[in-house]
Amino acid sequence: MDNTTSLKxxxxxxxxxxxxxxxxxxxxxxxxxxxxxxxxMRSFNITADKVQWLTTAFMLVNGxxxxxxxxxxxxxxxxxxxxxxMGIFVIGTLVAALAPxxxxxxxxxxxxxxxxxxxxxxxxxxxxxxFPKEKRGTAMGMMGLxxxxxxxxxxxxxxWIVDRFSWHYLFYIILPIAIIDVIIAxxxxxxxxxxxxxxxxxxxxxxxxxxxxxxxxxxxxAGSNGWxxxxxxxxxxxxxxxxxxxxxxQLKQERPLLELRVFKNRTFTITTILGMISxxxxxxxxxxxxxxxxxxxxxxxxxSGLMLLPGAIVMGAMSPITGVIFDKIGAKLIGIxxxxxxxxxxxxxxxxxxxxxxxxxxxxxxxxxxxxxxxMMPLITAGINALPSNxxxxxxxxxxxxxxxxASIGTAVLITVMTNAAKNSASKNPLxxxxxGMDAAxxxxxxxxCAGLVLIFALKQENKNKEAKExxxxxxxx
Length: 478
Known about the structure:
Radius of gyration: 22 Å
Helix content: over 70%
InterPro entries: EmrB-like (IPR004638), MFS (IPR011701), MFS_dom (IPR020846), MFS_trans_sf (IPR036259)
Oligomer: single chain
GO molecular function, one term: transmembrane transporter activity
Keywords: Cell membrane, Membrane, Transmembrane, Transmembrane helix, Transport
Shape: globular
Number of helices: 18
Structural class: mainly alpha
Order of helices and strands: HHHHHHHHHHHHHHHHHH
CATH topology of the largest domain: Growth Hormone, Chain: A
Largest sheet: none
Membrane topology: Multi-pass membrane protein
Main location: membrane
């Protein structure tokens, strides 16, 4: 059955609304605790190392769970999965709001991560199924709006709430939105994905969890603990070995947990790498820039978040527009322009000092986010469009997982560059030394963006139907 033609436009729009709301609250939830962590530390009388697990555990569980979603999407119906993911998220949010101690709050965050980890790949898969290829850019543009806007308003909203109310209200605010979305879904959400009788390979799940989990944990903690830390080294080694075994097992399986042979498709491979570069560059700068504004310019967390808001609004507004443009001209030209903007604006950040105009930072950051909107979702869509429909679930899971890993590695490397450059700075003034370190990190992000600009020229306007058929044949032979 061709879902793109059998679904009425009204039903399609209803499905889009349900997923957009669900994705918005789950993504918003990821960054909502950023400025609330000091308040939680005081509330439970715990250290910074301990409270950081509220974000680290969320990221780890999210990264571990996403690879499993390809199996779940093929095994269970759209309604079953959406209700399950959002139901788990609602339970986790309610427990978090009522948490009497840190342990309960941590468990609640893990439950939230399971629900949130499933929603994005499911939404991406559903959108690509219900929209024809010529409309997929527009659909993914709507996704880009959510991905850009929700995490950006998180720190600002969080700062405003915790300054006036208890941190518990962070969860009380998103809880009713999530519940209402589930209620709406009960009445209007349709099953659009096709199910297959497949069995879960437990060993693949274990290897996947150790692989992605080890790499994510190792690189995410390397920035703060240092690369010589024994736990960092152990986590990365376990992750790499497990990942190698996971890859070898998937290539031998007739029905793998994650179909890695999608990388035989040249277009998908290039666009996935470009997506990893843009996401790592975006997350790395979003991590370091608030350090500059808060630690060196003495700007409050709330106002620091406000500085990033115009950029989020620009990216959110641009995403649907770039989606429409993608549907008309394809990904290569718009991607080249996007990477050019991303490279130039990131180079500007490499020359910050203690007197740089804050207005200049806000404007350059907003232009930079416009560039990212021209890169991220169009390239993801182009890569998945090059694959047959039966591989969409695997492609979205691969794409989301590898972007998570890229963000973790990219951020850790940039923080390491920043730390080492600051230590080796010739300046005796610690503030100037720190600026030197941050400029070095921004320069690293600019070089990364420049690599993406070079690579995108390797993206060809190929016969996607022919390429997709070749991948199917290779997978059948494999």
